[in-house]
UniProtKB/TrEMBL annotation:
<feature type="binding site">
    <location>
        <position position="328"/>
    </location>
    <ligand>
        <name>FAD</name>
    </ligand>
</feature>
<keyword id="KW-0521">NADP</keyword>
<feature type="binding site">
    <location>
        <position position="14"/>
    </location>
    <ligand>
        <name>FAD</name>
    </ligand>
</feature>
<comment type="similarity">
    <text>Belongs to the ferredoxin--NADP reductase type 2 family.</text>
</comment>
<feature type="binding site">
    <location>
        <position position="41"/>
    </location>
    <ligand>
        <name>FAD</name>
    </ligand>
</feature>
<dbReference type="GO" id="GO:0050661">
    <property type="term" value="F:NADP binding"/>
</dbReference>
<feature type="binding site">
    <location>
        <position position="46"/>
    </location>
    <ligand>
        <name>FAD</name>
    </ligand>
</feature>
<feature type="binding site">
    <location>
        <position position="287"/>
    </location>
    <ligand>
        <name>FAD</name>
    </ligand>
</feature>
<dbReference type="Pfam" id="PF07992">
    <property type="entry name" value="Pyr_redox_2"/>
</dbReference>
<dbReference type="InterPro" id="IPR050097">
    <property type="entry name" value="Ferredoxin-NADP_redctase_2"/>
</dbReference>
<dbReference type="InterPro" id="IPR022890">
    <property type="entry name" value="Fd--NADP_Rdtase_type_2"/>
</dbReference>
<dbReference type="GO" id="GO:0050660">
    <property type="term" value="F:flavin adenine dinucleotide binding"/>
</dbReference>
<protein>
    <recommendedName>
        <fullName>Ferredoxin--NADP reductase</fullName>
        <ecNumber>1.18.1.2</ecNumber>
    </recommendedName>
</protein>
<feature type="binding site">
    <location>
        <position position="86"/>
    </location>
    <ligand>
        <name>FAD</name>
    </ligand>
</feature>
<comment type="subunit">
    <text>Homodimer.</text>
</comment>
<dbReference type="InterPro" id="IPR036188">
    <property type="entry name" value="FAD/NAD-bd_sf"/>
</dbReference>
<keyword id="KW-0274">FAD</keyword>
Amino acid sequence: MHQTDIIIIGAGPTGLFAVFEAGLLRLKCHLIDTLPQVGGQLVELYPKKPIFDIPGYPSVEASELVDNLMEQIKQFQPQFALGETAMTIDKNDDGTFVVTTDKGTQVKGKAVAIAGGLGTFEPRKPELTNIEFYENKGVEYFVKQPERYAGKHVVIAGGGDSALDWSIYLAEVAASLTLVHRRNEFRGALASVEKVKALKEAGKINLKTPYEVVGLAGDEKLEHLILEKDGGERETIAADYFIPLFGLTPKLGPIATWGLEIEKNAIKVNNALDYQTNIEGIYAIGDVNTYPGKLKLILCGFHEATLMCQSVYNRLFPNRKYVLKYTTVAGVDGFDGSRKEAEKAVVKSI
């Protein structure tokens, strides 16, 4: 059985940053994730997508952010169980926890931080009778390797941020890029909408609104799409790839059976203190949690991870007063809140 201080369920950006904050306090972490690699949604859904709201980065690719987080935490030597799903959590009489995965791996820890993002998720698929036939033959629900669309005729459907962002990105890659949306108005960021309109004026995006994709055609793979305009007019366009981006249907999976208080498919936490759940010692941070005023942003997940780690430290060493020091002053190795000093303080108090 593996032993650690904090068991982190989810190796996305919030879970990875929690390792850094825990490391500053000399707390060890063991991360468990269903995906075979770290990074969560950033790597699984949009590794090449630029992110604009990370402090200090005017723009950073999702996969680059994950690489940087891994570089930041390697000094603290976290342990990983990747490609494994956390199935059960058992709380021992001494307040410790044992998490067991679907592969039989067991990890014992003094606290649990659930950083599972959206949990398990499935793409919302358009209701087209033959869409399953064309899956992996031209129909894609995620953009993982943008370079594969170079020189191809690509059609994206959707009106949210993902559809807008990928249309902007792939307009510079594909032979042709068509964005289809059933309304004239978009739900995404205004800056992205304006960029799409500018690319349309420049002839780099074929914008079709208000239209819907109503049919797919091709013998062995996708070759054409049938579009229908609001009002019934139809047209056929060439397409090597059709990427419907209508969002995801999240599911908590086994997490929903752990006795946690759930609200609208998310875990309720005490945001006034430390993002602890209704079970003492189990925390939920990042997109997986909910509380009044919750914002599902990576930045907010980083903040929640920081306060969670402080709370765990105070639970493990209640007799030691932790004095916050800035890393600009103490560095990473210079924190006086180390495990050894904390343990000395506990022993001395006894």
